[in-house]
Amino acid sequence: MNTEGKVFKYPDNVDTDVIIPARYLNTSDAQELSKHCMEDIDAEFVKKVNNGDIMVAGWNFGCGSSREHAPLVIKTCGTGCVIAKSFARIFYRNAINIGLPILECPEAADGISAGDEVTVDFDTGIITDLTTKKTYQAQPFPEFIQNIIKAGGLLKSLKAR
Amino acid sequence: MGMTMTQKILAKHAGLDSVEAGQLISAKLDLVLGNDITTPVAVNEFNKAGFDGVFDKDRIAIVLDHFVPNKDIKAAEQSKQCREFACAHCVSHFYDVGKMGIEHALLPEQGVVTAGDCIIGADSHTCTYGALGAFSTGVGSTDMAAGMATGTAWFKVPAAIKFELKGKLPKNCSGKDVILTIIGMIGVDGALYKSMEFTGEGVASLSMDDRLCICNMAIEAGAKNGIFPVDDITRAYMSGRTEREPREFSADPDAVYEKVIEIDLSKIVPTVACPHLPENTKPASELSDIKVDQVVIGSCTNGRMEDMEAAYNTLKGKKVADGLRCIIIPATMAIYRECVERGYVTAFIDAGAVVSTPTCGPCLGGYMGILAEGERCIATTNRNFVGRMGHVKSEVYLASPKTAAASALTGRITAPKED
């Protein structure tokens, strides 16, 4: 499994309120919500994002509210992967549970620039910046979490058991 | 190896003699919680997965609190979906308008959570119940759906930071000033994935409302949970209130902590978190040039009785500043009623404030106090992110009820007096 696309770069502490503002949370429809993804920090994001594109961010990505709508809108927009220096714990859990690929890699987050073309191999955790020709190794997930991801999310993995 | 208080609760619920930091476990849940924003997503997932029913109708709580009484048609549809699910599965702890309160004030008050519990809630401030000596943490809607179906959840056992509290708070400070000071010290990811365990002789001087407020904002430091030991104050609070028998856990004397931080409560000053992160803290006394357009006193952080009392003591017989809107929101119907009976509501209205029935509304920019471009609010809520309470170019300053009420009278950020 892998993804390839253009990089959208964000700073430290991107919170779930800017990923999907609560003023839109009067619906749980992911398509409708995804029109507002990143609206308060990058109004251009939804216009520019293409399938497979990659978000690269700093420390503590997804801090704040537990709203699962946050990883859901990122995924629904077509984002192939989020790479960050670290993730807030509820966002981390939610991303795995709904099947949004995420990787922790501080070196990649520092080295990769906005607009770079990047490929990510989820099986090996290798991130390749095609623009700069540099590669980075992300932390692999523990086996327990890999099994949830392979099953296609938490509920499917529970059903499989 | 000794275990922290959190680790002991998790070991018990996982059926293990001991656990250590980093270990992945499956734990039995005493309660699974959701609100009117997160439950609809959980219900969709629950139905999509084709689960037959809930694991225990008495161990699920659904509280309509974010957008109720409903702010618009879509919000009403979401509440309806929660109501129908609760009815179909005979969920006994379902709280609709008239019975509802802000979930993290309501569930401790109603005795639905108790010491020794292992709780997940699809709301990040679920960490509040650590004040009762429970392990309690926020999760997303899929975890809520899985929890409702199976009564279990997976956890990575957290490492811990110990906060050794000593001394006693000055009279113009409260639990809010303590937690804001700590977040200012360690940062918004200073406790990422970890437990914040509060101990020491200073604990005895903190009321239940102070402790609930402190644990409530553990998530604002990135923590998995915050937790207080069970003492006579906890026992007195739970007595005659909790549905289930409390179970008291305490950290082993040789428990391992990643870090120990000493906090002298007597040195705490009224503290404010400036935009746009809860870690941007400053003493309130240094911010007297900051003019505010709105004051909000309420939320799951500070909508409890002591918070209302603090607002009353400051506002009674006085008037809020010209051109300032002051919104006061008691967090539960019981608190609301008590405010009516004690004459607080009359005093608030006479002071020029408005008093709403319980809702999370303004805290997350839902309704009931949305800010326009360039406007500024001092609030007793928990987050001051970009656009949190309205326009992307509005600002939220986080403070205690005493500081917020003092600021309402002057129209500027004002440190409460020391007497």
Short synopsis of the structure:
By secondary structure, chain A is an alpha/beta fold. Chain A is 33% helix and 20% strand.
**Uncertain segments of chain B:** none
Computed over alpha carbons, the radius of gyration of chain B is: 20 Å
Helical residue percent band of chain B = 25-40%
Shape, principal axes of CA atoms of chain A: globular
The count of domains of chain B is 2
Q: Architecture of the largest domain in chain B in CATH? A: 2-Layer Sandwich
Number of strands of chain A: 7
* Helix-strand category of chain B: alpha/beta
Number of alpha- plus pi-helical segments of chain A: 8
The CATH H-level homologous superfamily of chain A: Aconitase, domain 4
Plain-language structure description:
The complex is a heterodimer of chains A (161) and B (419). In chain A, 33% of the residues lie in helices and 20% in strands. With 161 residues, chain A is α/β, with parallel strands linked by helices. Chain A has a single domain (2-152), classed as Aconitase, domain 4. The longest helix of chain A is centred in the middle third of the chain and has 10 residues, at 89-98. The mean pLDDT of chain A is 94. Chain B has 419 residues and is of the alpha/beta class. Chain B is built from 13 helices and 18 strands. Chain B has helices at 5-14, 38-49, 73-88, 103-109, 141-150, 175-186, 208-216, 232-238, 299-302, 305-315, 333-341, 344-350, 401-410; strands at 24-28, 31-35, 60-63, 93-95, 118-121, 135-138, 152-156, 160-166, 195-199, 225-227, 259-264, 271-273, 281-283, 294-297, 325-328, 354-355, 376-379, 395-398. Chain B is globular. The model of chain B has no long low-confidence stretch (mean pLDDT 97). Classes of the chains: A alpha/beta (161), B alpha/beta (419). At the A-B interface, helix 4, helix 5 and helix 8 of A face helix 2, helix 3 and helix 5 of B.
